[in-house]
């Protein structure tokens, strides 16, 4: 019975991570297609992406979530409060077609980005609080899979829904998905709080800077930070430029959208789940090296395919799928280890700090890659990204044992907080 409760919690957290990921993906990565159809300029579409900036301030959003107590089970109350705010924003966005009201659409999208980014903090703080440490690597893989599924839903399915059923339909669907995940948290909050939650509620609060310094004072935290900053951004940048690469090599738009959006997204989700299942079998140290090695192999194959070229479209498709698989494995590892390095009494602040570091690196590398593309072309850009993954692999090889030693006691902990 306890196992079934844990499984239910895992999928509840996965559903809510999906519900919070979809709106930002839909508004900022799906909507540009619609914007272009309504004569938005390239500059306007580019400036619209600034609505994603709240993600880099997650470490600041985490502070009030950690410190402002909203009663017993305050993380649940924070989550539900922010979800209600999101529902109100969906209603406002869906009242009328705003595609021609650029300023209002940007303002509401920015508000959605803030609310969804903020709600992610109490949600994943609850995952750290309510799941035993031995379950948190699996929670990370489920969250990674939810991100890939969110890209399929927000970047593809909802665009089709809007084209066929009108402006309002996607907002109604996103609101329904979010509302569906809220009642279980309310029910769980009404029960006895987990032991870890009670300890967190009673913990004295240090100063904000001391809180962040305490995170880096954990055994293995500095090595983990190097891994966090380097493991994903290079493969993520390659994935971002895959669509324009395929288009420039002559592949039809619909085929590119299917391969990268549907097949690639599904592959990433599948390998996120596989990666989470393999980590307990491989161990942290071997998983770090193996997953980075798969990522390196994917970029080497993609680079050789573009350089040589190998002459068949099949090689390019195989490279794209392998890149998606590597992204799924690495992101599952990153999300899982993020939870492992989140202290129970500092759930929100530790999680927010780590995700901010991850986001800054993830946003910075694609910008540099774009500059390299303009100067060196696809060949040069991919070569530099491959060298970046090679450097990340070298870092991973050096820090793997320190990270594994630090997380092993957490992963074998079987007497974590009871299920609520």
UniProtKB/TrEMBL annotation:
The chain crosses the membrane at residues 45-63, 75-91, 103-123, 144-163, 169-189, 224-242, 257-281, 288-308, 314-339, 351-369, 375-397. SUPFAM superfamilies: MFS general substrate transporter. Pfam families: MFS_1. GO terms for molecular function: transmembrane transporter activity. GO terms for cellular component: membrane. The keyword Nucleotide-binding does not apply. It is a multi-pass membrane protein. Keywords: Membrane, Transmembrane, Transmembrane helix, Transport. It comes from the Bacteria. Its main location: membrane. It is found in: Membrane. This is Putative MFS family arabinose efflux permease.
């Amino acid at each position: 019975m306890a196992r079934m409760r844990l499984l239910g919690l895992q999928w509840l957290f996965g559903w809510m991570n999906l519900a919070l990921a979809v709106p930002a993906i839909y508004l900022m990565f799906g909507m540009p297609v619609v914007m272009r159809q309504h004569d938005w300029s390239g500059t306007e579409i580019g400036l619209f992406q600034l609505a994603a900036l709240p993600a880099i301030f997650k470490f600041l959003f985490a502070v009030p979530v950690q410190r402002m107590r909203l009663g017993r089970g305050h993380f649940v109350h924070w989550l539900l409060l922010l979800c209600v705010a999101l529902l109100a924003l969906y209603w406002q966005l869906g009242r009328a077609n705003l595609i021609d009201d650029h300023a209002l659409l940007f303002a509401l999208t920015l508000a959605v980005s803030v609310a969804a980014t903020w709600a992610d903090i109490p949600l994943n703080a609850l995952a750290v609080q309510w799941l035993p440490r031995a379950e948190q690597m699996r929670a990370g893989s489920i969250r990674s899979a939810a991100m890939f599924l969110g890209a399929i839903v927000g970047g593809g399915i909802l665009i089709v829904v809007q084209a066929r059923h009108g402006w309002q339909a996607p907002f109604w669907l996103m609101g329904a998905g979010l509302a569906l995940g809220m009642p279980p948290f309310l029910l769980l909050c009404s029960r006895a709080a987990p032991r870890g939650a009670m300890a967190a509620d009673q913990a004295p609060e240090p100063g904000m800077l001391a809180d962040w310094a305490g995170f880096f004072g954990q055994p293995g935290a500095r090595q983990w930070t190097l891994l966090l900053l380097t493991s994903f951004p290079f493969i993520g940048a390659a994935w971002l430029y895959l669509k324009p690469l395929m288009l420039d090599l002559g592949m039809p738009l619909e085929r590119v959208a299917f391969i990268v959006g549907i097949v690639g997204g599904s592959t990433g989700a599948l390998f996120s789940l596989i990666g989470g299942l393999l980590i307990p079998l491989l161990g942290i140290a071997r998983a770090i090296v193996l997953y980075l090695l798969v990522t390196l192999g994917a970029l080497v194959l993609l680079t050789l395919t573009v350089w040589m070229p190998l002459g068949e479209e099949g090689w390019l498709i195989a490279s794209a799928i392998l890149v998606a698989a590597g992204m799924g494995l690495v992101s599952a590892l990153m999300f899982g280890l993020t939870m492992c390095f989140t202290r129970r009494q500092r759930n929100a602040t530790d999680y927010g700090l780590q995700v901010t570091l991850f986001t800054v690196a993830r946003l910075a590398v694609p910008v540099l890659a774009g500059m390299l593309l303009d100067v060196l072309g696809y060949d040069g850009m991919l070569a530099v990204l491959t060298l970046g993954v090679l450097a990340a692999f070298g870092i991973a090889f050096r820090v793997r044992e320190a990270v594994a030693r630090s997380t092993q006691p957490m992963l074998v902990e079987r007497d974590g907080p009871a299920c609520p």
